[in-house]
Amino acid sequence: MIIDLDSNNWVVDEFGASDMFNQLVPTMLWNTVMDTMMKEIHAGGKTMQDIEQVLKWAPVIPGVVPAIKAAHALGCDLKIVSDANLFFVETILEHSGIKDCFSEINTNPSYIDDEGKLRICPYHDFDHKCKYPCPPNMCKGLVIERMQAASLAMEGNNNKKRMIYLGDGTGDFCPSLMLKEQDFVMPRKDFPVWKLMNENRQLIKAKIHGWTDGEELQHILLRIIKAITTIEEKQILSAVDHSKFQTIYSH
């Protein structure tokens, strides 16, 4: 939820490889398709530097970078859950000047092989058996459950962390179901996750706040954070422990 499109599609389109990509999608798992496309792009003479430059051209959603910086300044523990890959995500974050705002990046591993080519691996290398529309390589719901378990193990019954989850894709529906009543989910309106939520509202426990553009995202996100801060200040007559906020950005 930082750039205004899918980074995988953006790279493929910018290198003029859309036709091959569209032919492969019905025949392979998504992660395998992207790994194959990277091989083809490199075979066409493109380097890691070329891929990096294309990622830097990707259009960022207006207002998102200031929102991230503001949330970080207010003490939010920002984390990323992305079905892209580590090289794509880190390149975009570094170019946008916000990599240091995030404490954790959960995405498909990637590495540069001995021939200088980008290779992409699945985040989950096992059958996660998710009954919701998660791709085989990554169930974001499992990632959120791990975060929740880690918070519970660290703080026990005193755990009061609230999550704010932002997303727009089909794969963001499952993690939204893992959120608790005290949490918040911010789906992008008129995108796949918005449709799924509207069709299954009875399954969502978290408070739903839809948004359309970066300006609205920034306004809603900061309003939620400030509302949580006010509640905590009323409950604790001392400085607020801002580590009680976790904002999860899907990409």
Question: How would you portray this structure in words?
Answer:
The protein is α/β, with parallel strands linked by helices and 251 residues long. The protein has one domain (64-250): Rossmann fold (3-Layer(aba) Sandwich). It has helices at 7-14, 18-24, 30-43, 48-57, 64-73, 86-96, 140-155, 173-177, 192-199, 214-235; strands at residues 77-85, 102-108, 110-112, 118-120, 162-167, 184-187, 207-208, 245-250. The strands form two sheets. The protein has a six-stranded parallel beta sheet with strand order 2-1-8-5-6-7. It has a two-stranded antiparallel ribbon with strand order 3-4. The radius of gyration is 19 Å and the shape is globular. It comes from Capsicum annuum (Capsicum pepper). Keywords: Hydrolase, Magnesium, Metal-binding. InterPro entries: HAD-like_sf, HAD_hydro_PyrdxlP_Pase-like, HAD_sf, Pase_PHOSPHO-typ.
Furnish the topology, listing elements before pairings:
Elements (H helix, E strand, L loop, with lengths): L6 H8 L3 H7 L5 H14 L4 H10 L6 H10 L3 E9 H11 L5 E7 L1 E3 L5 E3 L19 H16 L6 E6 L5 H5 L6 E4 L4 H8 L7 E2 L5 H22 L9 E6 L1
Parallel strand pairs: 1-2, 1-8, 5-6, 5-8, 6-7
Antiparallel strand pairs: 3-4
Can you count the helices? Answer: 10
The helix/strand series, from N terminus to C terminus, equals HHHHHEHEEEHEHEHEHE
CATH architecture: 3-Layer(aba) Sandwich
The computed structural class is alpha/beta
Number of strands: 8
What is the spatial order of strands in the main beta sheet?
Answer: 2-1-8-5-6-7
Distance between the termini: 5 Å
CATH fold type: Rossmann fold
- List low-confidence stretches: 236-244
Helix content: 40-55%
Task: Tell me, briefly, the overall form.
Answer: globular
The largest pleated sheet is described as:
6 strands, parallel
Please tell me the total number of domains: 1
Strand content: 15-25%
The radius of gyration over CA amounts to 19 Å
The level 1 CATH classification is Alpha Beta
Cofactor: Mg(2+)
Binding site for Mg(2+): 168
Protein name: Inorganic pyrophosphatase 1
GO molecular function: metal ion binding; phosphatase activity
